[in-house]
TrEMBL record:
Protein name according to UniProt: CS domain-containing protein
Family matches, as PROSITE patterns: CS (PS51203)
Gene3D superfamilies documented for this protein: 2.60.40.790, Single helix bin (1.20.5.740)
InterPro entries the record matches: CS_dom, HSP20-like_chaperone, NudC_fam
Gene Ontology biological process terms from the UniProt entry: protein folding
Transmembrane parts of this sequence: none
Organism: Digitaria exilis
Length: 158
């Protein structure tokens, strides 16, 4: 049932008509997806993840992305992979349940409607996680959705 509450689509950050990256999020992580240029050996790509910064590029060249993150991440459980011509960066949120408006500070920020939809989806993910026998995939909120981190005592840690 949890997969019913997974992100339905990726958000795209487009700059000057070119897609820079796509991203989505869950309660615990933010995922970035970068389409890699063809003809470059995968071993030349690099990605450095720091608590508040990410840098992506091709070794020996200026970085493609070199930006501060919107919120801090856990570096010991964040990682990156390359598969099918795409770099997938998994950033483990330091604050589980926090709704991110974008992975990169000041870039590609969600509009208020999309941000509200993300917060509602994350709240339903939280309900599903706390009540695994119930199906919240068809649940809806009327009005403003509360913050999943603090609603009714906050997220329970294991």
């Amino acid at each position: 049932m949890a997969e019913k509450l997974a992100p339905e689509k990726r958000h795209a950050f487009v700059h000057n008509g070119q897609k820079v990256f796509e991203w989505d999020q869950t309660l615990e992580e933010v995922n970035m997806y970068i389409e890699l240029p063809k003809g470059v050996p995968t071993k030349l790509f690099s990605c450095t993840i720091q608590a508040g910064h990410v840098e992506v590029g091709i070794r020996g060249n200026p970085p493609y992305l070199n930006h501060d993150l919107t919120h801090p991440v856990k570096t010991d459980s964040s990682f990156w992979t390359i598969e099918d011509g795409e770099m997938h960066i998994t950033l483990q949120k330091r604050e589980k349940g926090k709704t991110w408006s974008s992975p990169i500070q000041g870039q590609g920020i969600l509009d208020p409607y999309a941000a509200d939809q993300e917060q509602k989806r994350l709240m339903l993910q939280r309900f599903q996680e706390e009540n695994p026998g119930f199906d919240f995939s068809q649940a809806q909120f009327s009005g403003t959705c509360p913050d999943p981190r603090s609603f009714m005592g906050g997220i329970r840690s294991e």
